[in-house]
Specification:
mainly alpha, elongated
Length: 78
């Protein structure tokens, strides 16, 4: 019987997965920054989570999402 711990994506596939995830995050940040110019970080945070939750398996918001929400509220991506 084989050990399933050895089953994993190869490095090229892993790099593509991370690249795709980064693109989805950038698109969400850009869209929310446009929609919530001048809004609160809480509103931006809520909107980012709404846009991201269905794009990832087992999505859980982390500190990065809040960091980008705060930057959106500060007008960093205007």
């Amino acid at each position: 019987m084989s050990d399933l711990d050895d089953v994993r994506w190869n490095d090229e596939a892993r790099e593509k997965i991370v690249s795709d995830a980064d693109r989805v995050l950038r698109e969400a940040v850009s869209s929310v920054a446009h929609d919530f110019a001048g809004g609160t970080w809480e509103d931006a945070y809520r909107s980012l989570n709404e846009r991201l939750k269905d794009r990832f398996i087992d999505y859980e918001p982390g500190p990065d999402v809040r960091k980008y929400a705060e930057k959106i509220a500060d007008g960093a991506y205007a």
